[in-house]
Amino acid sequence: MLKTALLFPGQGSQRPGMLAGLPDHRAVHDAREEAAAILGRDWRSLDDADALSRTDGAQLALTIAGVAAGRALLAEGAPIDVVAGHSVGAFPAAVVAGALSFQDAIELVRLRGGLMAKSHPQGYGMTAILGLREAAVARLVDEARAAGELYVSNRNAERQIVVSGADAALARVAELALERGARKAERLAVATPSHSPLVAPVADRLRAAIAQVALSAPAIAVVSARTARRLRAADAIGEDLASNVAEPVRWRDAAQLLGELGVRTALEAPPGSTLRDLTAEAIEAAEVVSLDGADISALARLAAVRSAD
């Protein structure tokens, strides 16, 4: 039987109006209102450019959007066999898989985003380098470190590598990358040096907080974008949620594992289509579809038909 994966994007994919623009579905309405009750604020307060420019606001909005979309798909009978989340997307993935409650996810993501914002309030961020392999980018990072702290972080695709660090070092590595043949060096809409040792204290605080919440073995298979391995036990999911903030994302490897597990249909939760494009590159035999602006019922039927083939 062919399998269906649900993918959850990370910070950088957010955009104003993303929550209001979710599919008109009862499960979506309920998830937004549930999140508002947990947060003690209207979900619309997270949906404008100002809120989404902040690390805590963006991560909360992405968590809400992911859970809402996942619940809507399941309500329509979509056969979701496996989930995977990029960075903060691991939290809605854990909720949809049945390993973590929505309330605990919201509280943990609120803590995660707040700690990240406070750890490096200004002068740091992330840059995506397109067109060079990881080894080449690693050499450029070594060169650019003379300008400030800098690390290779996300391995999103064979030729899409993200680096994290100080502004001056990011500017220098972008300059070097373009000189050495990179197609693009693009600063991301992320204001912290995520997935690097610079935010290791955030992982430590998260680990302590996660130890206080109830986690369950997942009812739906979970693939970690940090380890590119399937996570079967509750404690493994808890460690992954804590550690992924300070460790590189290995999306290319994780997507290849999805293909090895038999995934031939992958649906990306809103917003955007970043994971759609990256996953399609890694699993050539799969049909990868973004839920942005899509008909939830139609996508659920598509997944069911392909699963039955």
TrEMBL record:
Keyword Transcription regulation: no
Catalyses which reaction(s): holo-[ACP] + malonyl-CoA = malonyl-[ACP] + CoA
Keyword tags: Acyltransferase, Transferase
Record: active site: 87, 195
GO molecular function per UniProt: [acyl-carrier-protein] S-malonyltransferase activity
Pfam families in the cross-refs: Acyl_transf_1
Protein name: Malonyl CoA-acyl carrier protein transacylase
Species in which this protein is naturally found: Chenggangzhangella methanolivorans
Phylogenetic classification of the source organism: Bacteria, Pseudomonadati, Pseudomonadota, Alphaproteobacteria, Hyphomicrobiales
